[in-house]
Amino acid sequence: MLAKSTPVPEGTVIMAVHQSAGKGQQGATWQSEPGKNLTFSLLLKPHFLQPIQQFDLTVAVSLAIVEALAHYIPEEDLQIKWPNDISLKGKKMGGVLIENTVQGMGWKHAVVGIGLNVQQSKFSEVLQGRATSLWLEMQKYPSRVCPGIEELLHHLCLHLENQYVSLHAGWAMEQRQAYLSKLFQLNENCWYEVQGQKRQGRILGVSEHGRLMVDFSAGTTEDFGVREIRFLNSAD
User: Fold this and answer.
1) Burial category of 127 from C-beta neighbours within 10 Å (exposed 0-12, middle 13-18, buried 19 and up)
2) Of residues 199, 203, 201, 202, the one with CA closest to residue 183
């Protein structure tokens, strides 16, 4: 990786015209049609945070994506599927993968990888009905024009900068509250898979360290890491 071999300024953005081996959560791959979607990496150096606060950066990035997309489609239709997928009415529109490098007791740098379906109109059979794109959703609004990749990147970088500056200024609590207000399936009775078992539960929130809190029975709350619970009947 470039950041490991060469000094790179914070804020450097590297965009891929075609990403053939994009990575997602839990070892998943990111399928992107060449030239149709926005896939890029952003280098940040959040030395003002402790490594234990990594989820705060995830929150800030997720909120920035929602804000950028809200320039084109109604914000009330956008949700964040824990921990950092962007969902539109249950269909996956994009996602984030942050690779953190910790040195000693401090945070050396973070490479924020973002993938957004922009102009893609067809998806594989596996993703049919579970994924969508900005172009597909904007067909519902004839008066609006789907942005080009570079235009969307410009808007997104502006919102990423604003959220990052807010995080640096100590607004993490307010950002978490905004994240929670956009959380997919919050307070809804839904089905999940835990240790191979299908269980019905209700998402109550997310802990300060980014663990999903779910109520499976009245008064009993369990918390989970990314690889410990799977959403059923929704885009992965």
Assistant:
1) middle
2) 203
Quickly tell me which residue has 């990496």 as its tokens. Answer: 41
Q: What is the pLDDT of residues 107-164, one digit of tens each?
A: 999 999 999 999 998 887 667 678 999 999 999 888 888 899 999 999 999 999 999 9
How far is CA 186 from each of CA 39, 82, 174, 232, rounded to the nearest angstrom? 28, 10, 18, 14
Q: Which two tokens stand for residue 94?
A: 């994009």
H/E element holding 134? helix 134-138
pTM: 0.90
Q: How far is CA 60 from the centre of its chain?
A: 10
Token pair, residue 168, equals: 């640096």
Please check the confidence at residue 212 and state whether its pLDDT lies above 80: yes
Tokens describing residue 128: 């049919």
What residue type is 127 in one-letter code? L
Q: Which amino acid is at 89?
A: K
